[in-house]
Amino acid sequence: MFSTVISDQKAPTSQGGRSMGARAAVMAATEETKHLMLISYPLHTGDQVRDQILLDISPSVKVIFVSGDRDSMCDLTRLDEVRSKMKCQSWRIIVEGADHGMDMKPKKPTQAVGIKTGEVVAGWIQANDDSRREGSILCDEGGEVKWTGWEGAEEAMADSPKAKQKTASNIAPAPKSTPSGKTSTKAMSTPKKRKPTTNSGNSGNEPGSKRARRTTPAADIYGPNQDNVSGRTRSAGKARAA
Prior knowledge:
Layout: H1 2-7, E1 14-18, H2 20-27, E2 35-39, E3 44-45, E4 48-49, H3 52-55, E5 62-68, H4 76-85, E6 89-95, H5 110-126, E7 134-139, E8 145-147, H6 153-158, H7 161-169, E9 176-177, E10 183-184, H8 218-222, H9 236-241
Parallel strand pairs: 1-2, 2-5, 5-6, 6-7
Antiparallel strand pairs: 3-4, 7-8, 9-10
């Protein structure tokens, strides 16, 4: 990994190390140091966080952390907290599937991941974007090592499905104009459909009177041998039988 970075350097202004070597690189930084490459930085042992030397790094130095997401000595959440308090600018590469020793699980792509990491860090030294400071290296199911590219923290959050869903739910309806020129956000109501009624024409009243609604005799509904709704009227056949 470091051979790739060192071969790309034209001046000794960048230094780094892995694990305790990363701490040594920070302590050995001089006024000439422009870049620090901290691989598997041992941020904590148990509950003890060793972050003071990181907080003391000069604002003129740019720092890049390379950490595996299985690193037991550099929790990514704790690292974010420390980075937010550092005086200098920092970037981070997460190696998915790597432990503190940068060994992959399965172990086969470990060497290829190291080479890809060195290439990305060398490119970062030559050119870096202050607004895009997060990136990941991963190995897909086919065994190919891939670099996701740099992106900003806010950009990563905005691309998530939950964030998109929340944004869509917070969109207010566009205001509607009224004849008076004022705007209103009140939603338009859908007219209710009226049920059609059947009329039989004039009810025999004076011309111009309201039409009466047609009614159906109870016998037509219940048949000749059944009671009507009220139970008071019986068919003629039942009456004769009684």
